[in-house]
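Notebook, p. 212. Picked up where the previous page left off. The plan for this session was modest: take the two constructs that came back from the sequencing core last week, fold each one, and keep the raw output in the notebook itself so nobody has to go hunting through shared drives later. Recording the first one now, exactly as returned: residue sequence, then the structure token string.
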Amino acid sequence: MKEEEIEVKFLNIDVAVIEKKLHSLGANKVFEKLYKRKVFDYPDLRLDKTNAWVRLRDESEKIMLSFKQRLGVSSGDGSSNDGSMKEIEIEVSDFNKMTSFLLEIGLIEKFYMENKRIRYILGDIEFDIDFWPQLEPYLEIEAPTWDKINEAIKILGLNPNDKKIFSTTQVYKLKGIDDKDYKEITFDGMIKRENKLC
């Protein structure tokens, strides 16, 4: 179980260029798959008010339940970086039963969301190319230390000033999309909720 998630994002990437660089560096492509997730909170959105959420994610070969919280938050709209991200996650056995469990203990489902991910690994650094509905692809780099993150940025020839430390919710907000307006965000479409969560 890790407490701090050490990762950065680079938005609006050219996927072919990034993959070519990763191949030339000897990174191994380990998967390409669809993730399905549900995000939960209390009815009064008390987690959201502390920049936190509960995520249940079906990763096809495993199902992960996570508590996530943005730390060092200076904006909610993606205009500035967070300090880092807290993450506590455990593996669970059944997506639907875990959904029922979370609803039974009083949480509500904020939304259901899908994304596609291509993962490369080089040593102990993960490079995820993420595709989300209505967003340009972005690169997420995760490593055990900030020094390793900086090393990854350097070997890919990326500009360190372009790195983003924030959630996908903030990436959506940069596009003028508030995920709380939707009950479903998938590649087949986005379904608005009748009453906005607040």
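Okay, moving on. Second construct, recorded in the same format:
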Amino acid sequence: MLLPKRRNASRAMLTGGHFMSMQSSSHPALSSADQLAANTSDFLLLVGRILLGWIFVRSGYGKIFDIAAYGATFPARGLPPFLAYIAVPAEFFGGIALILGLATRYVVLVMVVFMLVATFSSHRYWDFTNVAVRRAQDSSFHKNMAMLGGFLFLFVSGAGRFSLDGWLRRRN
């Protein structure tokens, strides 16, 4: 069965040989921001990548010069210490790759695994009875969940034109 075409239902853009769908708002009265989103998407993807990547660069930088000491904290979280030698470089260099927009979808997959392990091993707020500690862990847990949402958006959208991925795509 053929459905009637909706005006402004969706637009397709062909960028560097890749198909990307730009969804319009659900109702014409809500579509005023659609053009703004279309006109600023690459810049906003850059800003989003910088903001998302920076938290990992900042956090990983403090650990990368003494991975063994950081790994010593893993058994209390139920993790073997050797995982620190995977987690810390993934955190630090993954953050740099996100900022640069290099191999973005692959880096996002690594970062999702990193975030899931970190969230469910280090921010188990339900295990704490001290109200202040529980509140801090609850906040960190839900912050990580929100960042996972950002990763999902980045996985779907890609890094955008202002990225090394975009530059490499244009070179080919």
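Notes on construct two before I forget. Residues 1-20 have pLDDT under 50 and may be disordered.
Flagging for discussion at group meeting.
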